[in-house]
Amino acid sequence: ETGVTQTPRHLVMGMTNKKSLKCEQHLGHNAMYWYKQSAKKPLELMFVYSLEERVENNSVPSRFSPECPNSSHLFLHLHTLQPEDSALYLCASSQGFGQGVYREKLFFGSGTQLSVL
Amino acid sequence: GIQVEQSPPDLILQEGANSTLRCNFSDSVNNLQWFHQNPWGQLINLFYIPSGTKQNGRLSATTVATERYSLLYISSSQTTDSGVYFCAVDDSSYKLIFGSGTRLLVRP
Question: Residue B99: pLDDT above 60?
């Protein structure tokens, strides 16, 4: 248990569906992240939020829409996805946003395995 | 951008054996972290080690920032050590760059 909880664990959706991924951290951290892990590719950073403000949007298509209502919760809203969006989506958090967001240990959730049909 | 290379890409060990995993990076970094991803996808932070040596049980890590590499040592390996080991570095920007990982299988 890392203190970062993701739901659902698995998700199958059609290309016309709308769904949301949820992440909750119980560590009192101020920064939260979404990563995408595709087969045979390194982890790709999608979004970073610090103190509920987005500080990174790493050229992610608009069919992915993040939301951070408070420092403990992070959502990823999905709509009109493509089959190539099938991947493991990982949420992470870190304590601070000092001089560099990543100068802190990252704690990951278990991920949501997404399949787009 | 900075390049992160891990070796070997795959490793098979007999339970009880020792191993060394390597992470090379192409430029100066401010930080380096090692992660273990278990077969169910969970990523666990093993070490936050921008320089020097740290130990945690059977695992230890050494980063030589001036020579742009880090090593992860696993001693007396167990089947639960199986999975993928990633190193990740951040440079002058705030992006954390992950390597492609070393896939480890420990056989009983």
Answer: yes
Do residues B78 and B84 lie in contact, with contact meaning Cβ atoms separated by under 8 Å? no
Residue with tokens 């992440």: A23
Residues A49-60 pLDDT 10s: 887 777 776 689
Residue among A6, A15, A14 nearest A37 (CA): A6
For A117, counting Cβ atoms within 10 Å of its Cβ (0-12 exposed, 13-18 middle, 19+ buried), the class is exposed
Nearest CA in chain A to B43: A108
| Å between A56 CA and nearest CA of chain B | 9
Give residue-wise pLDDT tens across range A9-42. Answer: 999 999 888 999 999 999 999 889 999 999 878 8
pLDDT digits (tens, 9 = 90+) for B34-54: 999 998 889 999 999 989 999
> Which residues between 37 and 56 in chain A have a beta carbon less than 8 angstroms from any beta carbon of chain B?
41-43, 45, 48, 55-56
